[in-house]
Amino acid sequence: MKPIAALSTFFLLFAMLGNAQTKTYKSIDAKRTAAPVKIDGILNEAAWKDAALLTDYVEFRPKIGALETPATKTTTYLMYSDNGIYFGGFCGESTKDSIATELSGRDGFGTNDYIGLIFDTYNDKLNGFEYFVTPLGEQWDAKMNPPSQDGNMEDFSWNAVWESGTVITDSGWSFEMFIPFSAIRFGKKEVQDWGVNITRRRRKTEQQNTWNPIDPNVNGFLTQEGVWKGISNIKPPLRLQFSPYFSVYANHFPVNKAGEKNWTSQVNGGLDVKYGINQAFTLDATLIPDFGQVQSDNQVLNLTPFEVKFNENRNFFTEGTELFSKGNLFYSRRIGGSPIHLYDVYNQADSNETIINNPTESKLVNATKISGRMQNGLGIGFLNAVTKAQYATFENTATKGERKVLTDPLTNYNVLVLDKTMKYNSSISLINTNVWRQGPDYDANVTAGLFELNNKKNTWNLGGKLAASNRFNYLPDNKTQTGFSHELHFGKTSGRFNFNVSQERTDTKYSSDDMGYFTNNNFLTHSGWAGYSWTEPKNWYNRIFLNFNGSYSALSKKIAPIEDKYQSARLNTNINIQSKKLWWIGSHLDYSFRQNDFYEPRNEGWYFKRGASVGIGSWFQSNDSKKYSYSTEVFMRSSINFYNSFALDVTAMHSMRFNNKLSLSQSISLQPRFNNMGYTYVEGSSNINFAKRKVNTIEHTLSAKYNFTNKMGITFRARHYLSNVNNKEFYILQQDGQLLANTGFKPEVNQSVNFFNIDMVYTWQFAPGSFINIVWKDASQVFSNKVDNQYFKNLGSAIDQDNNNNFSLKVIYFLDYLTLKNRINTAHKS
């Protein structure tokens, strides 16, 4: 059979796998109201009597299909007006003490009961909007999307402005929500049917119920929604919202050359804008952005050949960016990240010069994004950002004259995404990322096509990616470097038994590093995963998940003079169990075959032969709805006939919730490495040096939270990180991947690193979407080649340093154009 005919036959068989399964979905007719409703949690307005009634909730966790008891019955009402959507109801409980409550702050789950409304406004089974409220009236919201690279389907960084009110009684709690049409996206049909579901969670029993029944063994949550039918003649208002900000900073730096303490101050002002281009698309822009109050990065000592991937904490780059995450081509920390010539300048200083300033981050000038989805299912996302040129400053030690050297040119970043949803929650996507740099530095572009296909029964999935990268004017020959990459996966996605097989390959020139997080190219990897689940509670357990997976990786092209293309192979199995007491326990076992590590030597054409190893671990987590909860995890890896290398990871965490307002938590992680073998930089050496070393790493975090109300609270987080590297024996890497003992070689390359950070934040939401934030940030770091394993001595050393202290006040005021216009008109009339 010819290849094309074979491929066509395969796709035909895939599409025909099974007939459409028979499943009943609830539907409810849309009810419209023109009557006023006060959002205070008390459903005493006449309008609620004519609203659609949604009841008969069904449990899907832990017991699938169980009905509510009369004491815990959920009764809800849904209706809409010219301006938005009203949702209210009552969550029954046998006693007031059965209600789980905690003040956790905006978008904080905590240990709360909650009820949430989920809309699939385009009815594509892929994209949704969620709005949740707790018994104490705290809100959180999210966008639901197809699973991202990390498996996450909910984007809780997305925020909308809407109203809610709650009241707790002896027999449960009542709630009211109003979601203006400006807080949701939908098509422009005169009459629309939306996917809808409602979920309620009772934390003390971990029961979760939904209005339309959910089967956790079926692929997807939105694929199992009911229908809200006949929504007619709704038009979103003009969506024009401003969030001007004003901020003041006071910075206390370590002592300067003259032994004087440095105090500096800064006053900033800027504006965030949201504009509804039409019913589907929204423009977000940040002008003169200020991200000085974001949480400090978790800095670590990096002994690997790859860069550390940090979390994104800047709101503009986390909120509503789900389209841009497709294909794993966009790593937002590239924007405003390290200058591309940050370290090059150290080789450009003359003998009589010192570097007195070398910025480690490029300053963001502005950023804009446009995103949305049309009625036909076409989603469009466009993001553009500009960073200004950065310079290092050299000082002549004799004349005190200064000169500047460019470390990062003016740079423009943009991402374009087209994402078309199709039948059976399938989709195809096109992603393009582009980096343009002013001047002689190279520019970069990556384009990728993605597809995800599901059969009619929603039980089988076929997907993949094909990508091409281009680096223009790329050194050393100033030509265009073009590379290619592909990925293909196939699997079963519904039922108690599921599996997935995949292949991923890149050539030697492919790179998405300029706009994405990228570690290496030139590989061909095959992976497989199979899992089985027990989701019906039995005897002593609620749920059990068991899986097996393995991978095999080789170079896609040989690297001269190395003949062997093999890289690595691994097998592992995992089991996770939830008990009837709502405890979780899990275990992990893996075997890693011997490896050819082409990256640890930090030199192309070399590799390091690692030995095989066995890893085993387990973890335990108590019921986190209790006032006191804890968890622990232990993992160990032992080499097989490879320098007696042994690694141990021990993590422990516990938290205490004293009342609804105050809670404390502490976590500690210990990571000792015995006879660890790795690359070691030795200045002036022409060899590729390795060392047998003992590495001790401790990370300790203490967190506290106190919320005065559901609009005001204080959070405190202190983190200390210590890592000591004590080199015992030295080796020289040979061309065959083996190590040759370098007897008598004792360079001073031991390392001791301490990082200490405090982030303390006071937040007050004084009006919808408007905040006052007061932040104190304290940071210190200690580097030394003298290793001291006394933990408290290291901690004291980090605290006693001349720390960087930063105090800031930021006021953000939310302005809605229509609200402001109505107030002005009312004032004129009066």
Automatic annotation (TrEMBL):
Pfam entry (one): DUF5916
Designated name of the protein: DUF5916 domain-containing protein
Organism whose genome encodes this protein: Limnovirga soli
Family annotation (InterPro entries): DUF5916
Entry keywords, A to Z: Signal
Annotated ranges, domain DUF5916: 236-823
Signal peptide (residue range): 1-20
